[in-house]
Design a protein that fits this description.
heterodimer; A: Aldehyde Oxidoreductase, domain 3; Aldehyde Oxidoreductase, domain 4; 3 domains; five-stranded mixed sheet; B: alpha+beta; Uridine Diphospho-n-acetylenolpyruvylglucosamine Reductase, domain 2; Enolase-like, domain 1; five-stranded antiparallel sheet; four-stranded antiparallel sheet; 12 helices; 35% helix; globular
């Protein structure tokens, strides 16, 4: 399949063009192979027996009936497996020194702490046999009171773990100058105090998780196939937790059907397949079912946010004060406690705020563990400040666009040292706002909104803004150290030329839908002057890329892509020396153009980089001291985060008779710095917007009062489809990041971060003249209908 | 998501299907498009011992002009009904509703007979055939019988079909105008939270989706219309005597409210199509 460019920009290369994704033919044709597709002769299928209670004492587990069922090879309890573990399941982010972390084993021993907690496993010759036998495992439970509601749990009314002193995991603070905050609130002309609930979300990747571990019991390695975002981190953690020497584990992530953070984790099933393959000396595999995924894969969000703003009479915000309760769920998964901290620095949003106070308490509940989910902390922060800014605008009687304009960090203030301690790299927030307002036709919409109100229309119009900035490019290793994260934030790359002039790129980033293969090949193609089709990108296999820190947090391009560019530069440097030797010229007199090295001004006597690659391969005639082959590696540790930003505008129609909300228009203006492939940027923004709209209008992991998850199918958990969304109008401003040589910022999470508050602000805006000030997410038709019935109209119908 | 073990048989004719059905009617289920039954089996809410696949029985997929009515074969897929010229001209309500069921994948597999025989009060087509006063034809060991739609839907997933009977044809009187269908859901692919099928040709008939344990008529509205009430007043009685359920997507109170709004809209729209 040859690279197809939809829109080029002349001879300057392919970077910046809308080249079609090279990944897609295999994915769309079904040729791509996911874990479940792998054919592994002799593999045993694992089924997990899960607790039906949110909190229960496990009084006995009887596997005898299951053991006698067709095809069953083993049935094991938590006690049977206790000897397999060198340590409990890992949490890599102890955010405070006194953080509490209840022991988390792959299979519970005495106490089940959420619906879905594993209590036994069965291995059989087929998935069906394993599941039938799992249903026959007899477990006696003594049901215990469950900590279900987050705020109740924070008061320790019911303990989520029997032996824990409290449900509190930690309290983390960021209050640079408490006195300044107090003064700002004392002196404020206007304050707002808002409480927002971030409902729990089920990540619902199109491909549920899957694991298959193939042992070579006679001296070889364990090959772990997993639907994971983090093969490198997983290898290290599997080794430490299961007590297998790290070098004996090779993790391969085949095609991975989405993650959104949910596959940025080390899961019980991965550990179980490894330990059982070791124990039984046979391949062991497990494929997650959709309803199982709803319970056994991490959830996202789950916060109660109290946010206060202090402003002067002109609407200039002088202080932000935030208290968070963050629902950890039953256990700390890989980065659970750090998720709120990733948002902790961004509760002042895009605004130049001088005083800042943030505290967060992580709380255990008897629910599925939470962890990173698309945006991880930053969507929550953006939601709180952008909703609160609209509340402030209403209180001041000011247009929300004007309020934002007054408070933006000015374009002349970058690099900007924020009150929370970050250095924002570059930005022009007002330009993005202006572009978004222009694209949506803001003034005309306001007129139409007023017209409909005065006509007494039953379909009201609402316009919602969201201006966001996020921190991406995770992360400078030294900063991670200061946040007590136990790993670094660099990324690795190798670029090598093969004898025929083709190129292999090895990346430590691990794509699962983002299009790394396309983007990396474009970067290298331009550096080397070869067609992108000649560049193969190898990834997601610890046997091929022994070191890497994987893909999450919009880091791959700004960190991993930079490593690729640096490695390519090094390769070109070496090729230049060889070319100079062949052309009998000084290296500094050579220029590389369209894959040819030539002395500046005499392009006809050049030598192609492919020829050089072959000569470096044969090594028959190399300069003294030059090693054979054209190959170079780089490891890039960023010096700062990157700070993408933008403004999104949602336009909704609200049917006052039914409460139905229709998202009728959507404009997103994003600035992710330089763009390698604007088509991929569009795709990331599209998916991100859809996922953020889903939180605003559709999705919620609902629990009953006993801690049963009610939304375990996609008929109950409402992931919106394309037919539920309008066509998005996308715009862009380009403010390159000074933090990396590509000038890129990252765009994987931007749409999700921006869209949720834009949509909810739009619904509230539609109803504000009726006295509606807030709506809980998801904004369901019934909630809207009830809010209209309960609201007291604003006198005179003011905005 | 793996069903309990069952025996699968593919029937080549109605007679063969009925023969197998009569062997053990209570633990045998007919499989047509499978889009209602298979999800229940995968969740193990249904565990039939024998599955008789009638999907390839010839001669049961048709939409035919039969003079005073339209005859529809039970194995007609939703998509075929949606695009049928006969249905669009003579019973446009039915063609329209067939196009509202689920999503494109469901509409290309699911059948009208399967949907009606499943008897789900949240399904669209039962309300349409009830509003159209359809006649349902069933074949069984005691021969063929005709069942009025009014007598067909008995309760939650319960119909007038005997366990050894098979629904083979649906007969619908022609109603080229004076109809409307309102469906309220959160996502396009979802079952209706509340739906309304209204037919104003002849005696007005208004049928409701998801307003009780079975598909039913808005009797209060129909009585009001017969007494000459306008759409708003008639619609105000849409939920009279009805006890819809509360679930994750809507409370009973909200459903009752929606019924009044949607019935009013349906009546106004149906009146407008009457020309």
């Amino acid at each position: 399949m040859s690279a197809t460019v939809l829109e080029g920009h002349g001879t300057a290369g392919v970077v910046g063009t809308r080249m079609l994704r090279r990944e897609d033919p295999a994915l769309l044709s079904g040729e791509a192979r996911f874990v479940h597709d792998l054919v592994v002769p002799g593999a045993l299928h694992m089924a997990v027996v899960r607790s039906p209670y949110a909190h229960a004492r496990i009084t006995s587990v009887d596997v005898s009936v299951a053991l006698g069922m067709p095809g069953v090879v083993a049935a094991l309890t938590g006690a049977d497996l206790a000897g397999e573990w060198a340590s409990p399941m890992p949490c890599a982010w102890p955010v405070t020194a006194d953080m509490q972390s209840p022991e988390h084993l792959p299979v519970a021993l005495r106490e089940a702490c959420y619906v879905g907690d594993a209590v036994a496993v069965v291995l059989a010759g087929s998935q069906a046999e394993a599941q039938d036998a799992a249903a026959a495992v007899a477990v006696d439970y003594e049901e215990l009171p469950a900590a279900v509601d987050l705020e109740d749990a924070a008061r320790d009314g019911v303990l989520a773990h029997l032996d824990a002193p409290s449900n509190r995991a930690y309290t983390w603070e960021l209050i640079p100058d408490p006195e300044a905050v107090r003064r700002a609130f004392d002196d404020a002309a206007v304050t707002v105090k808002e409480r927002y609930v971030q409902q729990r979300l089920i990540p619902a990747a199109m491909e549920p998780r899957g694991v298959c571990v193939v042992p070579q019991p006679f001296g070889g390695e364990y090959v772990v196939y997993s639907s994971t975002q983090i093969p490198h981190i997983l290898r290290t953690m599997l080794g430490m937790t299961a007590g297998v020497p790290e070098e004996r584990i090779r993790v391969i992530a085949p095609s991975v059907g989405g993650g959104f953070g949910s596959k940025l984790d080390v899961y019980a099933e991965e550990l179980l397949c490894l330990a059982l393959a070791r124990r039984l000396r046979r391949p062991v595999r497990w494929s997650e079912e959709r309803s199982e995924a709803a319970q056994a894969t991490i959830h996202g969000r789950g916060q109660v946010q109290d946010i206060e703003l202090a402003a002067d009479a002109d609407g200039r915000v002088k202080a932000v004060r935030v208290h968070l309760l963050a629902d950890m769920g039953a256990y700390l998964q890989l980065v659970t406690p750090g998720v709120p901290i990733l948002g902790a620095f961004l509760y002042h949003g895009t605004y130049d705020v001088p005083a800042y106070s943030f505290t967060c308490t992580g709380v255990f509940t008897n629910k599925t563990p939470t962890d990173a989910y698309r945006g991880a902390g930053r969507p929550e922060a953006t939601y709180a400040i952008e909703r609160a800014m609209d509340a402030l605008a209403r209180k001041l009687g000011m247009d929300p666009a004007e309020l934002r304009r007054r408070n933006f960090i000015g374009a002349d203030k970058f690099p900007y040292s924020s009150v929370a301690g970050l250095v924002f790299d570059s930005g022009d927030y007002e330009a993005a706002l202006d572009k978004a307002l222009g694209l949506v036709g803001y003034e005309a919409l306001r007129q139409e909104q007023a017209q409909r109100r005065s006509d007494g229309a039953t379909k009201l119009l609402g316009v919602g803004l969201s201006s966001y900035v996020e921190m991406c490019g995770l992360a400078p290793s030294r900063v991670l150290a200061s946040l007590h994260y136990v790993a670094g934030g660099w990324e690795t790359a190798t670029v090598r030329m093969l004898p025929t002039g083709k190129v292999q790129v090895v990346t430590g980033a691990t794509p699962h839908g983002q299009g790394h293969v396309t983007s990396w090949s474009m970067i290298v193609a331009d550096k080397l002057g070869v067609p992108p089709d000649d560049v193969e990108v190898l990834h997601s296999d610890t046997g091929l890329s022994p070191l890497g820190l994987d893909t999450y947090g919009s880091r791959s391009l700004s960190v991993g892509g930079t490593a690729i560019a640096l490695a390519a530069d090094r390769l070109v440097d070496k090729a230049r020396l060889l070319a100079a030797y062949r052309l009998e010229a000084a290296p500094e007199d050579l220029e590389l153009s369209d894959g040819q090295f030539a002395v500046r001004g005499t392009p006809s006597t050049g030598i192609g980089i492919g020829t050089l690659a072959f000569e470096a391969f044969t090594a028959h005639d190399l300069p003294e001291g030059m090693e054979p082959n054209l190959e170079a590696s780089a490891t890039y540790d960023p010096t700062n985060f990157t700070f993408p930003f933008g403004t999104h505008v949602a336009v909704v129609e609200v049917d006052t008779e039914t409460g139905r909300v229709d998202l009728v228009r959507y404009v997103g203006v994003d600035d992710c710095g330089n763009q390698i492939n604007p088509l991929i940027v569009d795709g990331q923004v599209h998916g991100g917007i859809a996922q953020g709209v889903a939180q605003a209008l559709y999705e919620e992991a609902s629990y009953d009062e006993r801690g049963n998850l009610l939304t375990t199918t996609l008929a109950d958990y409402l992931v919106p489809a394309a037919s539920d969304l309008p066509s998005f109008t996308l715009g862009r401003t380009v403010t390159p990041s000074p933090s990396n040589p590509l000038g890129v910022k990252g765009v994987g999470e931007a749409g999700t971060i921006a869209s949720t508050p834009a949509v909810v602000n739009a619904v509230v805006d539609a109803l504000s003249h009726l006295g509606v000030e807030d709506l809980e997410m998801p904004v369901t038709p019934e909630r809207v209908w009830r809010s209209i019935g309960a609201a007291a109209p604003v006198p005179g119908g003011a905005r | 998501m793996i069903p309990a073990s069952f025996e699968y048989r593919r029937a080549g004719s109605v007679e063969e299907a009925l023969g197998w059905l009569s062997e053990d009617p209570d633990s045998t289920k007919l499989l047509a498009g499978g889009h209602s039954l298979l999800p229940l089996m995968k969740l193990r809410l249904a565990t039939p011992g024998v599955l008789v696949d009638v999907g390839r029985v010839p001669g049961l997929s048709y939409v035919r002009d039969a003079g005073d009515h339209v005859a529809i074969g039970a194995l007609t897929r939703h998509r075929d009904l949606e695009i049928s010229e006969v249905a669009r001209a003579s019973v446009p309500l039915l063609a329209h509703v067939a196009g509202q069921v689920g999503d494109p994948q469901v509409r290309h597999r699911g059948t009208i007979g399967g949907s009606l025989a499943h008897g789900d009060p949240a399904s669209d087509l039962p309300a349409a055939v009830l509003a159209l006063d359809a006649t349902l034809v069933a074949d069984g060991p005691r021969g063929r019988r005709e069942i009025a739609a009014d007598d067909f839907f008995r309760g939650f997933l319960e119909t007038a079909l005997e366990p050894d009977e098979m629904l083979t044809e649906i007969r619908v009187r022609k109603a080229p105008s004076g109809w409307a269908f309102q469906k309220f859901n959160r996502r396009a692919q979802d079952w209706a939270i509340v739906g309304v099928a209204a037919v104003l040709d002849g005696d007005p008939r208004v049928a409701l989706v998801n307003m009780g344990s079975t598909t039913l008529r808005a009797r209060g509205t129909e009585e009001a219309l017969a007494a000459g009430a306008d759409p708003t007043d008639a619609a105000a009685r849409a939920a009279d005597g009805l006890e819809p359920s509360s679930d994750l997507h809507a409370s009973a109170e909200y459903r009752r409210h929606l019924a009044t709004v949607l019935v009013r809209r349906a009546l106004v729209e149906a009146a407008a199509t009457r020309g």
